[in-house]
TrEMBL record:
Ribonucleoprotein as UniProt keyword: no
Protein's UniProt name: DnaA family protein
A Pfam family assignment: Bac_DnaA
NCBIfam families (alphabetical): DnaA_homol_Hda (TIGR03420)
Chromosomal replication initiator protein DnaA ATPAse domain: residues covered: 18-171
Originating organism: Simiduia aestuariiviva
């Protein structure tokens, strides 16, 4: 796991890990996926002549693409900062603390701000990000922003930050259909040497909340159980493992 260490105010250490398994080539896309444009837009940030600011919002997969961008740019030797705002926002409340957290990011080769919607209404964070955006623009540093909601519709109190959240290219990620989730699970299983029949994949999707992170976590659990008990993935075995 690629580790990025940050100095948190009050000397609280925070190790933020990038998932090395997050790659562009294992981001699921069906043949006619509406998410193909979003993937291309994120990858374009690796192009020195490409778009400098990209916003990714909407359905699942935002953090996967953000981390894939960071991992693959780090593989190129870039200095990268990945900042999951939902995880770090509570470490800093006052403007000076936020400034300390964001200081120097304009010297990176790439910055990713995950879950910018998490700081909406937090005045210290809004002001800190406003100044950060200006510094990144002046330095020409590429920036990826992710948000659950369209940033244009966030309840941002600082109008100047609201305008900067609309810089660059805005891309929506669309939720997967059940058929696409089935195929995504089967591809992930195949990569692990598992056979996941259609009926078993459908059974899992019908009984687990349809969030891809949860579905992949369930697949991880089934993978471990299958190895331990030397069992194939069948509906009775899945019922046994999941307690359904």
């Amino acid at each position: 796991m690629t580790q990025i260490q940050m100095a948190i105010p009050q000397q609280l250490p925070l190790g933020i890990g990038l998932n090395d398994d997050a790659r562009f080539d294992n981001f699921y896309l069906s043949e006619h996926s509406a998410n193909r444009f979003a993937l291309c837009a994120v990858r374009e940030l690796l192009n020195p002549e490409g778009e400098r600011f990209v916003t990714l919002w909407g359905g699942p997969g935002r953090s996967h693409l953000a981390q894939a961008l960071c991992v693959e740019s780090a593989d190129l030797g870039w200095q990268v900062q990945y900042l999951p705002l939902r995880a770090v926002r509570d470490y800093a409340f006052e403007p000076d603390a936020v400034h300390s957290l964001l200081a120097g990011l304009e010297h990176m080769d790439l910055v990713c701000l995950d879950d910018v919607d998490a700081i909406a209404g937090m005045s210290a964070w809004e002001l800190g990000l406003f100044h950060l955006f200006n510094r990144l623009r002046d330095a020409g540093v590429p920036l990826l922003i992710t948000s659950e909601e369209n940033p244009a519709h966030l309840n941002i109190g600082l109008a100047d930050l609201q305008s900067r959240l609309q810089w660059g290219l805005s891309c929506q990620l669309h939720a997967l259909t059940d058929a696409e989730k089935t195929e995504a699970l089967q591809r992930r299983a195949e990569a692990r040497g598992l056979q996941l029949p259609d009926e078993v994949a459908s059974f899992i999707i019908q009984r687990v909340p349809r969030d891809m992170n949860l579905l992949f976590s369930v697949l991880d659990r089934l993978d471990r159980a299958s190895l331990q008990e030397k069992r194939k993935l069948t509906i009775p075995f899945v019922k046994q493992v999941l307690g359904h």
